[in-house]
Amino acid sequence: VTTTDKPVTPPESVYGDVDNNGVVNAMDLMKLKQYLLLIVGKEEVPNGDLTKDGKINAVDMVRLVQLLLED
User: Fold this and answer.
1) Could you tell me which of 70, 37, 27, 32 has the C-alpha nearest to residue 51?
2) In whole angstroms, what is the distance from residue 28 CA to residue 19 CA?
3) pLDDT band, very low/low/confident/very high, at 10 (cuts 50, 70, 90)
4) pTM score above 0.85
5) Which one, of 65, 41, 63, 44, lies nearest residue 53 by Cα?
């Protein structure tokens, strides 16, 4: 068996996919809510900063709700 050392490119994240599982859904809203309530850590919401302001806060949650209601 031979292997090649090719750089692995991480998959492109989907806007609104807070938990980075490839799907934007109510689970993302739940994870973001849990983060804001200090139930889970930042590692659980790697894409939580939807507004790209360097902070994960209620403004991001409002944006996620807007995204979910657009569908």
Assistant:
1) 32
2) 6
3) low
4) no
5) 63
